[in-house]
Write a structure and sequence with these properties.
about 200 residues, alpha+beta, three-stranded antiparallel β-sheet, about 15% strand
């Protein structure tokens, strides 16, 4: 777990490795562990990997269920930034979680939760966290309607130019009729020649 999460791990991960709760407190006070919110630690001597974002890793670990597996997927504004689509950069960490998700503790970082069920085809694995695909990200932002549309125009243009979104992907995507309608309207705005065929 330490390797996957850039030196970060949860209390549950530590217990599975043989560290009791008492041992965990000792390692924070006297040893090489740093505390990053309730139940999340980092081994202080683990080298920081290039281009890692601690806020996304901590938020991902904060979303872990009883099984120890993360439930949250980085999405919306934050995913747009990760994919480098448009110049928009929202505040905090946007994350999509299952509708059944509940958490009593607060994350160290400001996390804005979006509740919904994601298909595995809508998710990319970035090792330390998971993120919605460029197409799912843009569709989610069209639905949420909380950023100015000019940023989504820039985003779809960037995605099409970089081939991060293809015609076949849009055609085969599992979208609701309303989602497809919004996507078609956005494609028309950028004069996409096959807008009416998706």
């Amino acid at each position: 777990h330490i390797n996957r999460f850039d030196g970060f791990f949860t209390s549950k991960h530590a217990r599975l490795s043989g560290y009791s709760v008492q041992n965990q407190s000792y390692h924070v006070k006297q040893g090489p562990w740093e505390k990053h919110g309730w139940g999340i630690f980092r081994y202080k001597y683990y080298p920081h990997l290039a281009n890692q974002r601690p806020d996304l890793i901590v938020a991902t670990l904060w979303s872990c269920g009883r099984s120890g597996h993360p439930q949250g997927v980085i999405s919306h504004d934050t995913a747009l930034s990760i994919h480098r689509l448009s110049t928009w950069s929202g505040q905090g960490v946007h994350m999509t979680v299952p509708k059944s998700f509940r958490r009593r503790s607060q994350c160290k970082y400001k996390v804005r939760l979006h509740y919904g069920e994601l298909d595995e085809t809508d998710i990319e694995d970035r090792e330390s966290f998971r993120v919605t695909t460029p197409l799912r990200t843009i569709v989610d932002l069209l639905i949420s309607n909380h950023i100015e549309s000019i940023h989504l125009v820039d985003a779809i243009n960037d995605a099409l130019r970089q081939k991060l979104i293809t015609f076949n992907e849009m055609k085969e995507a599992k979208l609701t009729p309303h989602e497809r309608e919004l996507l078609t309207a956005l494609l028309r705005r950028v004069n996409y020649s096959k807008a009416d065929d998706i």
